[in-house]
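1st attempt posting a full record on here, be nice pls
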Amino acid sequence: MKKIFFLLIITFQSTNSQNIVKYDVANFWEAYDRIVTSNDSLDQLSIIQRDFIENGSPGLQAMIDARRYTPEQYLFAIQNYPKFWSSIRRQTQQINSYSDEIEIGINRLKNLYPSLRPAKVYFTIGVFRSNGTTVGNKVLIGSEMALSDSTVVVEEFPETLDYFKDYIATNPNKNLSFLNIHEYIHTQQKTTIGKNLLSQTVIEGVAEFIASLALNIKSPNPQITFGEKNMKQVRKAFSKEMFSPHFNNWLWNDAENTFKMRDLSYYVGYAIAEAFYTSSDDKKEAIKEMIQLDYNDQNKLERFVNESGYFPKLISAYRVTYESNKPKIKSIDQFENGNQNVDSEIDIITVNFSSKMDNRFRGFDYGPLGEQNVLRVHEFLGFSEDQKSLSFRVSLKPNKRYQLILTNSFRDENGIPITPYLIDIKTN
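the predicted structure (as tokens):
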């Protein structure tokens, strides 16, 4: 028995070393120590580039690409937040203490889903834009966030990093295994990028729920408990926006919203996945179906959500309501759209909407004729006091056709976007 036990230990450790890559963290601190003892900014930049970035793992390169980190951003963070780095260092050097737990979680996930494909977990250091994400078969952990806890010093941080201050209050390093299994599941899905809020919600919710099954614990994320306590209100609000291409009210946001709770889409997706699993006779088949679902095939997605029974009505009924509630462009003050005899002396255009718009968002694009015929917005003058109109300054030439698309970045105060609207005119 002793010999068998010894062999099992060796096998486990070997698997662990293959699945979890940690040397980027050590590289960062070696570079950090050199940087803080140098007074030459060019030398400091060279150190972070040469000793950390260029010497990094494929996972670090993927994280840098995914979050668009630059050497300058790393150097700025090192120079401006010394108390933070001093306080987080000990936690990041305890990665080994988490490795066995993560490996056990991966093995449990494989028991639930035998088709599990290999993936590697990379512990990286970033600049506060991701605690965890995936690229292909790589799980990318932002250790400066994911390994933090309430003891980390954040007094140096500006308001733009308030989301991180809120995040560390939840002691994320206590839930590191859950984060890793959640992200590992993403490496098994067909996509991690949804076409609309509903598809992205199911993508995240499936990972959240199956991670709970694999680890045999309830999701530690506060959105789940909050959502369960406020299910009807959350479900009603979500149903109004589920087909939106914008996620800002529900995903990767802060607590400045109606419910005062960030990332509530995780709860909605979790609840859909849980309802589907609970109602399924074959649990392993249900897990397989959830992971292998084509989330951006609208028909398959709607069938899945309908079968879960989470919403009291069919998804098609919500789509009809969504389309009918979309804000519309009612008129343009200076001319009728499509006019072929527009006064070239016009220098301000005012567009009127059917609903009160969210004045934080706007978007313009070329029309089908491209850049040479674009109606350029020389100055955005802003929304009217009632937020039902917007004005912008233009410069028109005689006898020329102009096009401009108002994109679906324009949305009403409920987060519902317009259908992209083409202004197409010709001047006299």
